[in-house]
Amino acid sequence: MDRSWLKRNWSTIRIIPIAAGILVILAAFLFINPSFVEKFSASPSTIEIDTIRVIFWIKTCVLALGLCLILLFFILRVHNPRNEKLLTISGLILCSLILLIFMVEITLNLVDRKRHFNTARQAYAQFDDFLGWVNKPNRTFSSRGANVRTNSLGFRGGIVPFQKPKDEFRILFLGDSQLFGIGVDEEHILTSILENNLQSVKTINTGVIGYGTDQEFLALKSKGIKFSPDLIIVVINAHDLTDNINKTMRNGYSKPVFKLEGEVLRLTNVPVSNFGSMARFNKRLQEMSQIYYIGSRVVDRMMANRFGQQKRDKKETEEQEHLNKIQRIVLSEEEFLMSIAVTLRLLKEIAAVGKSTNAKTVVIFLPYEMDFRSYEIYNKYVENSRRQISDYSDEGGFFFYEFQKEMAARKSSKLYLDDLHFNKEGHKLVADILREYLSQSKLLPEINTE
Asked: Which of 113, 106, 136, 110 is nearest to 44 (CA)?
């Protein structure tokens, strides 16, 4: 090669690595993401957590390649005898900062398994302008080592036709992630166990992650009642009281919310907005960058502090720690009064919809893992919630059963995957207790019970 040509074009040649590096890094952020891969995938229904983990690995390698190309640019500058010393030093300092940022980004991409799960959760929820979001139909994915599948209606379990056979007893379940069964194989979720233990009974699991009682009521009216259920079971927990007065985003979406005006529920925030351009941009940045994602969560938690921003008394110890753990669930007194009024009315409306097809309604209050711990404020809050729902059951036209005491009496092993969700042993225990309660309360035909 002509060395004189190389010398004449050296300024141009050394720009190639940094230009290529920048393009490679931009491509990694813009295109190597689960949503982009899903969009052009031949089998979008099979984008699962393991696939997402591989996508993050590929993204990490591409980011590392881009970083190496940028480093090559500065190496070439150092070997250029005509380089300006100050500019080179400044460039190396800048490169070191970029290197640090990318090393943090790369490390988080590799080790943050929780975000892999959160990203996958976005992959199987889709926007709905009436309910806020729904499960994507015909999805298969891995969730904490379990195989999770949704049918053509977006529900867990096999497909159930709307037309009910004459000799079939149908139980329709309404609920959130506790019912959906995060991290639990289909055959081990409570609805499957209950169906397998009862003759001529078909269970329909309409659980959707993040749903409140308001969305469950709307889903029942729009689709669930078409199954002609004989029994409707509403799964409720402490988080529902918060959800029922908020239109905050879950899974990246907003939701409808009811306002109680006198004795009438008025539906608001419908049609639900698929959020504005800034919110979409924010969501996209969260998907592209781990650093931005974690930073956003920190800021969100700071802004969502329900207990104010006043300085904490250093003498506050255990009580304050309890507040910090439960602040996302426990409402202020004013908010609680508003929420319980809306929740009770929603349960009454659900029971009324059931009566229109001669279906009875049962409300079951399922405990979280923290319900079995000594968190004074939280325990009193949950107990007050259960008591008010129980006291209202006759007027509301539904049966009520709370599981905590019975579960505590039978608890012999670990029942939870985390603070909120049951493992397969937890689902089995809930299914057994529920079957006994339904039989003793004569809510099932006797011929159906094994």
From this structure: 136
* Strand 360-365 to 231-236 pairing: parallel
Query: Where residue 220 sits, what CATH number does that domain have?
Result: 3.40.50.1110
Looking at residues 376-403, what average pLDDT do you find? 94
Same domain, 107 and 181: no
**329: CB partners within 8 A, 6+ apart:** 238, 239, 242, 378, 381
Over residues 295-329, the pLDDT tens digits come to: 666 665 554 454 344 444 444 444 454 455 577 78
Residues 354 and 206 in one domain: yes
Are residues 234 and 180 part of one domain?
A: yes
Instruction: List Cα–Cα distances, 18 to 9, 96, 441, in angstroms.
Output: 16, 15, 73
Ordered DSSP codes for 221-245:
HHTGGGG--SEEEEEE-HHHHHHTT
Write out the H or E segment, with its range, that includes residue 333. helix 333-355
Task: Please state the pTM of the whole predicted model.
Answer: 0.72
In 3D, which of 366, 371, 378, 379 has the Cα closest to residue 426? Answer: 366
In the structure encoding, which two tokens stand for residue 83, read together?
């380089």
